[in-house]
Specification:
Length: 115
């Protein structure tokens, strides 16, 4: 993932949004989906992804299921019921943040405006 704190601060919301849309995913699948959606602009490293997944799991927002696929164990993550509710909250919060930032970035400050 890019080193910007803006991206790092959004990682858990990105994970939760993908799981909301795809029901369940494994780690590598999440990294590849982000890369595909962003056309390579965002690359989530394993070093960033797995601590975030484990943190979300520890908070009770995700649960993991292990399955054997091609003679290998694969850990799938999915949102819990509380994770689904929290995803809605975080996405609404992110949308508000983006809208406010767009307003600030695109505004022409009035020099006569006094505080």
């Amino acid at each position: 993932m890019k080193n910007s704190p803006l991206y790092k601060g959004s990682l858990t919301t990105i994970i939760m949004k993908l799981l909301e849309e795809n029901e369940r995913m494994y780690g590598y699948e999440i990294t590849q989906k982000v890369k595909l959606i962003t056309q390579g602009e965002l690359n989530i490293t394993e070093g960033a992804l797995y601590p975030a997944l484990h943190r979300l799991e520890g908070e009770g927002l995700l649960e993991a299921e292990v399955e054997k696929v091609d003679n290998r164990l694969r850990k799938y993550y999915k949102l819990t019921e509380s994770g689904q509710k929290e995803t809605v909250n975080r996405l609404a919060e992110l949308e508000d943040f983006i809208r406010n930032m767009q307003t600030l970035v695109n505004s022409k400050t009035n020099p006569d405006l006094q505080f």
